[in-house]
Amino acid sequence: MRRLFTTSLCLLVLLVGAPAWALDPARKVDEYTIARWTMEDGLPHNLVHTISQDADGYLWAGTWEGAARFDGRRFTPYDAGSAQGLEIEGVRAITPHPHGGMVLSLGRVGPGVLRFHQGRWQRLPGQAGTLADVSVLRFGPDGALWIGTDHSVFRLDSNGRLQEIGNTHARLANERVLAILPLPDGNALVGNRHGLFRIEDGRASEWGRATGMPETSVLAIQASRWGGILVGGSAGAWRLEHGRAEPLTGERVEAMLEDRHGNLWISTLDGLRRYAQGRYETLGERNGLMGRLAPALFEDRDGLLWVGTTNGLYRVSDGPVFGLTRSSGLRDIYVRAIIERPGQGVWIGHPMGIDVWQAGQARAVPLAFDGKTDPSVLSMANARDGGLWIGTYDQGVIHLPVASADGQFRPSRLDETDGLPSNHVRALLERADGSLWIGSNEGVSVYRDGRIVRTLGAKDGLPDGNVYMLYETAQGALWIGTSNGMAVVRRDGSVRHWPPMSEFPAVAAFDFLGDPDGSLWIASDRGLLHWRDGRFVQFDHRQGLPNNRLFRLLEDDNGDFWTSSNRGVFRISRAALTAVENGHLARLPVEAFTHADGLPSSQANGATSPAGWLMRDGKLWFATANGIGVIDPDDARRQRTQGVTLVVESVEADGRVLPLQQRQALRADTRRVVIRFTGLNQRAPERLRYRYRMVGFDRGWIETDNGIAHDAVYTNLPPGKLRFEVQVMNAPADWSKPENLVMRTVEFEKASPWWLQAWALVLYAVVLGLVGWAVLLLALRRQRHRQRRLEALVDARTSELSDKNAQLEQAGEANARLLKQLAHQARHDPLTRLANRRAGDAFLAEALEVSRREGRPLSVALIDIDHFKGVNDRYGHAFGDDVLSQIAALAEQLAGGVEGVLIARYGGEEFLVCQQLPRSTSRARLETLREGIARAGIETPDGDTLHCTVSIGVAELEAGQDLRDLLRVADERLYKAKQQGRNRLVSG
């Protein structure tokens, strides 16, 4: 009998298909990602009693203050005010109904059991709807609902008949039910503080002690996919099979769950433990799982683990991203450099030195010698002798050879005493010829045969700044990325330098990645650059990058690019880059991975090397400000194809909630329609992208990924038939691939108003015909009258013709005067009466040409009124305009009126002064202008006297400068004058 029971139960478990994705059992629990939600996120209460999931994929949580439905980003609370006549609180049990919806228990205020289905709440019929203190709800395979309360256990069959079973056994009567497991044969197992009971044919019998279990509280019962029954309680956990109880652990079990891989998860007093293959690992406070664990432990349809505690709702997931942090054994989490060494694990550089990650554990590498402590590590490079080169913050370069026979390292140092120009080393590269190239804040040094043989600096054509990256291509070229541009050392030793923001469209170059054809990809502070055929192609926020500052650039085994930034790690398809570069695609479909996906921090670290590494197993490791982010590209690819459920949650018309149905009828006077929808992907809800349209109203699709609220709002829809379509897919959204998206539709038919109905249209036609006939008769009558008037008018016009000729001559003279006035207005500012910007630019261009041709001096000054915004804020814009006019007049008086000098208003409170005068003369005139303005007083509306000052930036024309360079220099010096305290002139 028992063998037959166990076999049937296992068959039932195995028939429930495992999801395409579940928690990876090969990972350590420290590699799982934990997310948390609390009352601040919309949870009704932080103590979560129970967790379940409905057929659509919504997660449900029961708390003291009611229940909440969760779509992965937004909670919909159901509490005391959610349903009229119902007090939804103290929810301790929730379970899905076999025919749709959810069944949940209520607390002592208005007790009972409710069903939520298609947006409506109702009590279960009969006595079951009012049972008090319900603690457990479980549906059996036969559709019967087993109900556990604080006083007894009941069975509600599919016909609505309620049977109390607790009164059939003295140790079940008036006792709180803690756990129920319905069995395939229609019976059940029940646990309470006295132990485990079997319900068979409506009667209860003690069953736990008969199998060898001690008398103990039974808090959890579950069928095992490996066979038998799992029972957990205050004295531990057991596997019951073939009539015998096999102990699994002696720890108190608050909740218990066997996942789809057969791993046993147990909530204990000090955390959540996973038992597998005779070992256990614990998730606790060090992993972010806070509070005392409640009986709420649930595995959803995607294989994610959900945990309820006194501190909120937690999700345990194993997406493509996980982190290594201090809890993983790292001594310091501000990681600077990562490198994999064959057979020696992954070496991690940080401010406290180096840790090695090997066989799932971190260990420190001692680097203190010669009386110095462990250095702050900025860079690393594998050495050809099997050792490691280490660049430090202030101790130069350390060479760590292969460990000696006793397992010890014998490090050596190369620093300023050996000819290194700086001990601050951010980049290292050992080249094919055996030379070590060292990048510091003083250039690039070459170390060969035990000495520094060469140092390249600004005098050799290198950029002047910190060296961030050294990269050798297959063609033998050495590329150098710095904080001030980039350079290349060719095979013949010649150097080419690209200064920032000239031919090189960025300032800093952080990383390089070469292609076999000799082209180069560059991670910079202005996006991703592609250098090919002597020119740069730039990809930045204008093409869809979430952040322009890119640090590490790696290519995975599938040919996709991965780059770190201060906004996470981005995956960019090489094919998409090519399509954008060739003009076949407008924006890049970028997939971003952030802290929400499992990165220890969205802020990656860069300006050191290597700040990331492609491991031999295909995983990508990136340095961040809070540890190491590990990404599995294959898992990421699978995540992009994970299924999504799309639900239309509600339809409202003028504030009225309409019944959820495929076709909706709208009244003619409907003004506002709101359609709420959401995609359900509990693993990565933030990666969902949506678009929608109302066919018959919208011209095209409207895309949205605003994360929380997904509402389509329409006002004044036209009458007739309309169709609302909404689509969802995982990021990055490529809507051209219908196989990756899910769509839902809602049909609408809006009634026509009475004035657009058929009878009204016929009436309009009749009235229109009568009106047309009347209008025709009236038009004929007026035509005859106009003919008579026309004949008289011709005579009068002939006599007036000569008068008109004279008037035309006068009009011509007036037009000439008007044109002259308009020409003046086109070149002058109406407020200050100075030349405007157009006139200033024209004069400056002409003066520049004269200066180049004749060698005449030329200076340009940009003048800005200091603290002018404060004048506007205090006295208003009308007085501000008066101040501008007076200062403009004073400027013309003090510095204008001389040949070769033009003063123009250049915009806002900024003026342009162009002088074709010697440098000393032009500067003296500007100083006179500045001092004169500072002395002048302007009467304010409140009777005070306002003294204004100006800041002046001056640029003199130099050889090779064009107009843009001249204005840029003047603007920079104006900014410097502002920085130095204002009311001053800066000319160099």
Structural commentary:
The chain has 988 residues and is α+β, with helices and mostly antiparallel strands. The protein has nine helices and 72 strands. The strands form 18 sheets. Strands 59-65-64-61-62 form a five-stranded mixed sheet, with no helix packed on it. Strands 67-68-66-71-72 form a five-stranded mixed sheet, with helices on both faces. The protein has a four-stranded antiparallel sheet with strand order 1-28-27-26, with no helix packed on it. A hairpin with a 5-residue loop joins β54 and β55. α6 (868-875) packs across α7. The model is unreliable at 1-20 (pLDDT under 50).
Strand fraction equals 35-45%
Strand order of the largest sheet: 59-65-64-61-62
Report the biggest beta sheet as strand number plus sense, adding barrel if it closes: 5 strands, mixed
Global outline? flat
Tell me the total number of β-strands. 72
Number of helices: 9
Rg from Cα? 40 Å
- Percent helix: 10-25%
pLDDT under 50 segments (min length 5)?
1-20
Mean pLDDT, to the nearest integer, reads: 89
Question: What is the CA–CA distance across the termini?
Answer: 99 Å
Structural class: alpha+beta
